[in-house]
Write a structure and sequence with these properties.
homodimer; 347 residues; alpha/beta; six-stranded parallel beta sheet; six-stranded mixed beta sheet; 13 helices; 14% strand; DNA-binding
Chain lengths: 347, 347
Amino acid sequence: MVDDLPPLPPTLADVAELAGVSRQTVSNAINSPGLLRPETLARVQHAIDSLGYAPNRAARHLRTGSSRLIGLRISPAQEYTANAAMDRFVHALVEASREAGYHLLLFSGGPTALGARPDPLAGYDALLRSTAVDAFVVTDTYLGNPQASWLAERRAPFVAFGRPWDDDAARHPWVDVDGAAGTRLATEHLIERGHERIAWLGWRADSRLGEDRRAGWEQTMAARGLATDGLAIRIEDTIDAGWTASAALLDSVAPTAFVCASDTLAVGVLHTLVARGLRAGPDIGVVGFDDSQVAQVVPPGLTSVRPPLEQVAVELVRALRALLAHEPCAGGVLLAPTLAVRGSTAS
Amino acid sequence: MVDDLPPLPPTLADVAELAGVSRQTVSNAINSPGLLRPETLARVQHAIDSLGYAPNRAARHLRTGSSRLIGLRISPAQEYTANAAMDRFVHALVEASREAGYHLLLFSGGPTALGARPDPLAGYDALLRSTAVDAFVVTDTYLGNPQASWLAERRAPFVAFGRPWDDDAARHPWVDVDGAAGTRLATEHLIERGHERIAWLGWRADSRLGEDRRAGWEQTMAARGLATDGLAIRIEDTIDAGWTASAALLDSVAPTAFVCASDTLAVGVLHTLVARGLRAGPDIGVVGFDDSQVAQVVPPGLTSVRPPLEQVAVELVRALRALLAHEPCAGGVLLAPTLAVRGSTAS
DNA sequence: GGAAGGGATTCGATCGTTCAATTCGCGGAG
DNA sequence: CTCCGCGAATTGAACGATCGAATCCCTTCC
């Protein structure tokens, strides 16, 4: 039995020979076509096409020092929450990267299984030292981002999805979604529907991200002259916490609507309503944050703040290209979310 | 202002000089430590550690021909469905690959924007010819997989998640989830809870995947001597279709439970129940398929067949390693799902 | 004592591309 | 007629690792 291997891909030299030019000329045809005489270019192009030539990435990477790969660390999918935004974001990032001639390299946080502290830096270091990627996209900067400062310290190129909340000295480019603007949209939407007692379900006060979103609710309420006393509560980001807290609020201050820091919390509210025989929408308004798949499909549809992830991805890649081209750092970009209106705020 | 660049990473030669050995000895220390005398190995190791050396992936790739990268094409996240399994799967695959010393390279299907047919092969070809990846994981083989036969034709190494339903000549390794076993679990679970009129909500008959899942329901019903006449319906995989179809079934044959080919369809059933004031669980049993985040969090919790994606990923990587080591193809692997029981089948 | 053996280490070439420097060819200016 | 200048194409070296073959050194055996 003959174990015929796949044919070896053609190289620059093969193309050069076929076209009757030198290797370098073929290289130029690909990288700086303007240097060639039109007739030569055509001849080389024809040779490239007929051989099905594509530059060997390894050789190019070795010579130029650029792998045209962007590193993205993904954390385990959180089950039993509604935080599935990663899916949409990853795809948007793949698409934006492709248009810039980059691919995405995924890696995980190392041995999370057992016997190891969950080192947030594992993986970054190895990829950096082996020159596997040109840059990183860092996503979970809201956790006091040790990654960002660590990467900055090593002068590793990276762009963050999320503001450097805690670190005033941070000088890296970032892209973020304006959480306050999102909850402002949500609150105004509810007020327009006639609600006045609008509760806030948010995270612990040490979450800067959570406080940002809370501010949008608070500002809007104040601007409309609506009271907020006792209407805000800070809890963990789980369905059960949202469930318990919303039940307690209904019993104490009797809000007619909830603005939530996440879809997960909003789903907790939906559970309370179902348990009490109340209808989301006509009886109690509910707005989530993230526009997860859950928000889109859960009956009767959860109105939710939708982060413009496609736009975020485009801006991240734009910043990355500037960074890699050693252009001056343009600072941060703040993008406005939209509101996806569904049944949970219908009357 | 000094634009101090990141320091150049150390090379084999640097380590060799520090340790007082040749380049090749350092290379051996990394790739075949058994060849070195223990004392030499220790000396080299110390030099490696103190310099923070890691092999340059580009150089290694160029020389060995292996990029230690696995290509995975991701399609746009389908919104307004409950098919978020990709998230869990991608992470499981990243993790399994990491343990085998591989990383995942994500790519998309090319210019899906406008003016282009959605070529399912775009991306594969470019990566293959530029030797960017060692192999592919192909996931959407249920679509009559042109990828599989195309890749096989080019002798490109790949492993499929999904059986080669239509192609008897297919000789590539694959891993799949036993859909019939899953719906068997679901149907038996409902029968144990006292249900006898159990409906099937599935896909069009030309979906082999859907017919596989349907078979599990049908076999189980037959084995228990339960009638299935008029209880099965074949529709598209959308919430609206599931909604409409389940409403029609309730009016015509009045089933007490639904087994669905997907969580998306099951969510459609939930919508019907909410609209009619019926409770999922006590009134009507509902079982989905995929164990998506939606199933996990939607009130009152959707019982769902859970594909063992972590196990699938491990088997895929195992098959990939065998393939790349030119070991004989071990054929396919069929894995049994489990049932995640939740409120939608409670009494 | 010398040859044979074998484990440890070294040397030179090579993977496919791009960079830097050079050569070639041609037209116009001196 | 020579020389300069410029665009177009070529040549040789280098990126950092691994492969194959050669070399060294030390032990063992006759």
